[in-house]
From TrEMBL:
GO terms for cellular component: membrane. This is Putative receptor-like protein kinase. Residues 35-386 form the Malectin-like domain. It is a single-pass type I membrane protein. It is found in: Membrane. GO terms for molecular function: ATP binding; transmembrane receptor protein tyrosine kinase activity. The chain crosses the membrane at residues 410-433. Keywords: ATP-binding, Glycoprotein, Kinase, Membrane, Nucleotide-binding, Receptor, Signal, Transferase, Transmembrane, Transmembrane helix. PANTHER family: OS03G0124300 PROTEIN-RELATED (PTHR34590), RECEPTOR-LIKE KINASE (PTHR34590:SF6). It comes from the Eukaryota. The keyword ATP-binding applies.
Amino acid sequence: MGNSRNPLFLFFFLQFSLLCALSWARFFPADNYLIACGSTSAYTLDDRRVFLPDSAALLRSSGAKISLSAAQPPAPSPLSPTARVFTRPSSYEFQIKQKGTHIIRLHFYPFSSRDFNLSSALFHVSASGFVLLTYFGTSVPLLKEYILRVDAEKLVISFAPAQRSSFSFVNAIEVVSAPGDLIGDTARLVGPDRIEKFDGLSRVAMESLHRLNVGGRKVTPFNDTLWRTWVPDAGFKNSDSVSKAVAFSGRIMFQDGGASREVAPDNVYNTARVVVGANISDSNSNMTWVFAVRSGYKYLIRLHFCDIASRALNELYFNVYVNGYSAYEDFDLSYVTGSLASPRYVDFVAGVDSLEQLLSVSIGPSKQGSHSRINGLLNGLEIMKINNTMGSLDGDILVLVSPARRGFGAFLRSIVCGFAFVSLSIVGFMLLLRWRAETRNPVTWSPLATDVLDGKLAKGNPVVSGKFYF
């Protein structure tokens, strides 16, 4: 009798253990606003998140708050049938329970109604003192994701028509607290002749541009604890004959102080691309990914590593290049993690050439590697745009104030004054440079050292708390 109960007891015990493990792994943000704009009812997505009508948020507008519904939804998303339209400067205000880094997602699904064609909208968007979008409009569904720090008790997201005859719209908004380990404060700033320390990363605003699952399939928000989408890397990778995709069916060993599941999910770390059979002295042995970006900004390049390919520790060494410049030499993942299948990530910051407007990332063999072993590995890759000196992620317009309380005239005057201030600043700076050039003694220039021109830089420092620090 006792033996007949054991299988049933074991079954329920395993089910309970699985539920406990899933609830432990799932991230529960302190701030979790999911807003279906213009809707009168809630929507549930495939990832089981519930979006509530925007009456749940504090909506302010100096004009009408127009709600639209589409007769035929433009996209297979539950959020696409409704939208909130503003003909005057307006804003959403969110009470912040936990100050710190937040994720903002803006959903745009343009459709036509009797009174508005959302594809013809043209508007600006700002949040927490940063400009997110200027003269923005779209005729196709778009999801815009931003990461920024909120230190106030309220987060204000403002929408303002770019012209008197235009309007703004939004279909859905997400405001979610980010885990504390998502964005560190330092990174490695990669330049043509040296690597420097980049401080203050946690205090800038960033726009997520690309998120790749290298060597693997698409990862949907259902399988990501922060509800992100990771796409395959094939569309960004240059063709080569030295790399191959690998997969791992074992357990990913997340460590304290290492990358967590919120940094990237298991489905990113259990696939990779590796460099095999490479000629260490041949630059064509690198595997490279290329991205089209805008000049005038710096970019955060986050690389995810998890050695799922080596047979033993201390067999994998490789170099990392950003825009063709050496970013990390003789990277030894075993030294950092002390075990196989244990994830880490490294953050780099770099600008782009104003003519090419391309950002490249390469992984290549190290001189310490061996032709008979794996000579390079990458599991995931993220590219994020960092705000410029004007506090903007989209052009040089000054930071927008909360327009719903000032009216369109005051808002327009702030834009004009902003442009005038920028113009006068540029003129003053050029005059200062001319004066200094006329008064300075001639300088004899020396060429750079050969080893610097060849991109040979010193090794970096060990990894702490899941990423590299100086």
